[in-house]
Amino acid sequence: MPPDAPGGVPDTERAGAVTWTTMGGYGWISFTTDYGTFDGFAAACRGVIARIAPEVRINDITHHVPPADVPRGAAVLAQTAPHLPASVHLAVVDPGVGTQRRGIAVGTPGGVLVGPDNGLLIWAAEALGGIDTVVELANKEWLLGDVSRTFHGRDVFAPAAARLALGAPLSEAGPAVAPATLVRLPDPIVAVGDGWIESEVVTVDRFGNVQLAAGGGTLAGLGPDLVIGGIKARRAQTFAEAQPGEMIVYEDSAGRVAIAVNGGRAVVLLSVRPGDVVRVAER
């Protein structure tokens, strides 16, 4: 069975992000899913958007979130969305599709997020300036015909994203939702002590670099010579500072603590995956 298978005009600046007038809408929709690219699921959603809003451009963040991995999708979306043009951010990683979980749209100073109420959108909303307004996607006129129980990306979320990009107000999508009632993912584990950090693995990129939840500033409390899982490492700012095969700990482009191996894959050397807790300590 498949998974949930399948420009406006700048108004004001707030918290460093451009907000857009409702009348002007958005010129972009970003798109994040776990659909992959071997099937037609993502293309079907793109087609629905194109039929409703043919002039709106679609920016694919990724369709290779691991299946049903909501925290990974949330992390990727939150780390990417602030660098994109003001957009409607459509995100679908939805293992609860067809259940009582709500479909929502979240208004923020830096854009609108559309997707399931399972925690997927919250970190990105905070990265875009915080939650202003939330509505449930309950307007039946916005749905695509008879809604499939397993493909809300196509039948619920894509049509809503397209209409919002065209400038429809959030209030037309459905009733207001109290932000306090939204599903939130647990905060990742981060603990900092004298000469050590313990932190949850958030993501592993295609190069095998391991990103931790700890902010890069926590490295200031560590010396240059470190050990991780019994393996020697050292602090560095660039990969080139390490010898081939040497492990380094650094602040990555998202401002998080990360672990890499020059010419290798830290994820293999450490044998970790997202959700595991890693201890980085001084030698």
UniProtKB/TrEMBL annotation:
Q: Which UniProt keywords apply?
A: S-adenosyl-L-methionine
Q: Which InterPro entries does this UniProt record tie to the protein?
A: SAM_HAT_C, SAM_HAT_N, SAM_OH_AdoTrfase, SAM_OH_AdoTrfase_C_sf, SAM_OH_AdoTrfase_N_sf
Q: Which residues form the S-adenosyl-l-methionine hydroxide adenosyltransferase C-terminal domain?
A: 200-279
Pfam families in the record, alphabetically?
A: SAM_HAT_C, SAM_HAT_N
S-adenosyl-L-methionine as a keyword of this entry, yes or no, is yes
Q: Which residues cross the membrane?
A: none
Q: What is the top-level taxon of the source organism? A: Bacteria
Q: Which residues form the S-adenosyl-l-methionine hydroxide adenosyltransferase N-terminal domain?
A: 29-174
What SUPFAM superfamilies does the database record attribute to this sequence?
Answer: Bacterial fluorinating enzyme, C-terminal domain, Bacterial fluorinating enzyme, N-terminal domain
**Protein family membership:** Belongs to the SAM hydrolase / SAM-dependent halogenase family.
Q: What is this protein called?
A: SAM-dependent chlorinase/fluorinase
